[in-house]
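HUMAN: Can I see a protein plus its fold?

ASSISTANT:
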Amino acid sequence: MTGKRPVRVLVVDDHPVFREGFAALLRSIDEVEVVGTASTGVEALEQATRREPDVVVMDVQMPDMDGIEATRRLLQEHPETGVVVLTMSEEDGTIFDALRAGARGYLLKGAEPDEVVRAITTVAGGGVVFGAVLASRIADFLAPRPRSGTATAFPTLTAREHEVLDLVAAGLSNGQIAARLFLSQKTVRNHVYAVLTKLQAADRAEAIIRGRDAGLGR
C-alpha cells in the first residue's frame, strides 16, 4: 500500500463474538478500514464482490463452504485480493491447502494484534506472511529431502497405498485424503492401516517421517 488510504478489510468468521470483536479491534487502527463482515464462505464471496476489499481475513471452519474453498473461489473471481487465513488449526494439511488455494498469509488465532495488522498491510502490499512457528514448519517441509524412489523404498505398497502415504506425509487428515481421492473415510482408514502394517510403522507420525525421507508429501 502507498499509505494514501487505509487497507480495506473484510472479516470472515462464523463465530459472532470473535468476528465482531476482531472487527472492532481493526476499526480502532488507522491503517485499516473494515468494509464488512461475513459468517460463511458463501457470504464471504458475496461481500467480496460487493465491498471490494484489499484483504480478506478468512477463518477455515465454517458452514456451507469452508475457508479453503472460499479462498480458492474468491481468488478465481478477484485475483487481486489478498487473503490472510486466521484460524485455530495448526495441521499441516490445512496450512498447505490454504497455500494451494492462494492464501498469502496464515496466522493462528491468538496472534498479537500488531502481528495481525502487519500481516494485513504486508499482504495488501503484495507480500506473504506467516506466523513465526508456522514459517519454520513450512521451511522444514520444503527443505530438500533424499529421494530414494518410492517404488523401491516401499515395494510392498500398492499404487493406491503409495498415493495415500504421499498424502499422509503431506500432513493431510483422513477426511482430507478422502475428499482429495473421492473415497469414503472408512476406505481411507483401511488404506492407512494397511500402510502402517506393511511399513511396520508404530504410528502415523512414523509413517509421515518415513514417507518424507523417501521424498513423499511434497
About this structure: The CA atoms of residues 13 and 59 lie 5 Å apart. The chain has eleven helices and six strands. The chain has two domains: 7-140, 150-213. The domain at 150-213 is CATH 1.10.10.10 (Arc Repressor Mutant, subunit A).
